[in-house]
Design a protein that fits this description.
The structure is a single chain. This protein starts with a helix and ends in a 9-residue tail after the last helix. It has helices at 2-30, 33-57, 66-90, 95-102, 104-113, 121-134, 143-169, 174-195, 201-225, 231-238, 241-251, 259-278, 296-300. It is mainly α.
Length: 309
């Protein structure tokens, strides 16, 4: 029992540290937008993350079936979409608001796969929260930023479903070592031509640090956390992220939320916690890894965390 409690505590710590890394990485990325644009900031992170994972993990062709490799490639395309769309959103609306809207993606997946009649309450609660966050009645809504965040939410939902499939078929982080370079290629096609000419040695070095902070370290921590936590526990922790994003936005980016935004963020967090508790996959069991391999259940839900944030 004591060993299980220690495992839960360590898994919780890893998940929380992962969320902090994600939000700090996003806040740092925002500071690059003036220099290389929103898409450029996302491209720089993805290029370095793809290179690091490709060199460190060195994915083996034998680890993939043809179908699994195709899904890993599709996952990379979606990952690139999340990052580019989310960075375009935070260039136009506050970080906390963008994170809360983006969280509608995993919330939707949790509701769709959840059980019980009460699951319909969570989308309604989240919708109220998003309205309070964007306060459209003021007439000052940046609808482009909101739409970019909504598109990122759609990509995040697809990302979760694809990651579940890839995680069920591919051991360890082999799938991630394929999907992330593909995401970097997608970002290069979209943002590379307008960004590469603006790069300096200083920006390349900053990019290494950002890629390690987000997404390399968070993905590794979350993979380890999912070996120790049930999916509902992990999903509940992730539901706290919109609130954490608002705090980071306040402390680092000096984005001061109003009372309506604070209430909206709380409602989104509550909706996320409720949906996560109802949306865990069936037969939820925490299995200890054997010979360094990740259990199927933990691997399958590594995608409950967005690479964008």
């Amino acid at each position: 029992m004591e060993g299980m409690q220690n495992s839960v505590r360590s898994g919780t710590t890893m998940a929380v540290v992962s969320m902090l890394c994600v939000q700090l990485g996003l806040a740092a990325s925002v500071t690059l937008i003036d220099r290389i644009g929103a898409e450029g900031a996302g491209w720089l992170r993805l290029v370095w993350a793809g290179a690091i994972l490709l060199v460190v993990v060195r994915p083996r062709p034998s680890a993939f079936t043809r179908q699994a490799f195709g899904m890993a490639v599709a996952l990379g395309v979606v990952t690139g979409g999340i990052v580019l769309l989310f960075m375009a959103a935070v260039a136009r609306i506050p970080l906390g608001t963008a994170s809360a809207i983006e969280f509608l993606g995993p919330l939707g997946v949790a509701v769709a796969t959840g059980r019980g009649g009460r699951r319909v309450v969570w989308p309604l609660l989240a919708a109220i929260g998003v309205v309070l966050l964007t306060h459209p009645w003021s007439g000052a809504v940046n609808w482009a930023g909101v739409l970019f965040a909504v598109a990122a939410a759609g990509c995040w939902g697809s990302y979760i479903l694809l990651t579940q499939r890839v995680g069920d078929e591919v051991v360890g982080v082999q799938g991630l070592a394929v999907s992330m370079p593909v995401a970097a290629l997608v970002a290069t096609i979209v943002a590379g031509p307008s960004t590469i000419g603006r790069m300096t040695p200083e920006l390349w070095l900053i990019g290494v640090g950002l890629a390690i902070l987000l997404p390399v370290v968070p993905f590794v921590l979350e993979m380890k956390a999912l070996q120790r936590l049930t999916t509902s526990a992990f999903g509940t922790l992730m539901a706290l992220e919109p609130g954490l994003a608002m705090v980071i936005g306040l402390l680092i980016l000096h984005q001061i939320p109003g009372p309506a935004s604070l209430l909206g963020s709380v409602l989104v967090v509550i909706a996320g916690i409720g949906a996560a508790r109802a949306g865990a996959r069936g037969g939820e069991v925490v299995v200890e890894p054997v010979s360094g391999e990740h259990p199927v259940e933990g691997e399958a839900l590594s995608g409950t965390r967005s690479p964008a944030g």
